[in-house]
């Protein structure tokens, strides 16, 4: 998918919830945010760092 200009990675690498959509999240890789969607009816789980 495409890099998101509005989300700034708080760390160089990691997984972060989309503050606007519970079914989406960001993967940060070398400070670049990649916006991803959870499959089906799953939502991003911040504690498990996966869609559940």
Rg, nearest Å? 10 Å
Q: Averaged pLDDT, please? A: 92
Number of domains: 1
Q: What is the straight-line distance between the termini?
A: 20 Å
Runs in which pLDDT lies below 50 for 5 or more consecutive residues are: none
Strand content: 35-45%
Number of strands: 5
Strand arrangement across the biggest beta sheet: 1-2-3
* Helicity, as a percent range: under 10%
- Tell me the series of helices and strands, N- to C-terminal: EEEEE
Dominant shape: globular
Characterize the largest beta sheet: strand count, sense, and whether it forms a barrel. 3 strands, antiparallel
Find the structural class using helix and strand composition.
Answer: mainly beta
Supply the number of helical segments. 0
């Amino acid at each position: 998918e495409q890099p998101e200009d509005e989300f700034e990675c708080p760390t160089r690498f990691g997984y972060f919830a989309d503050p606007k959509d519970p079914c989406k999240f960001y993967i940060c890789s070398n400070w670049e945010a990649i916006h991803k969607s959870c499959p089906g009816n799953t939502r991003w789980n911040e504690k498990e760092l996966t869609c559940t």
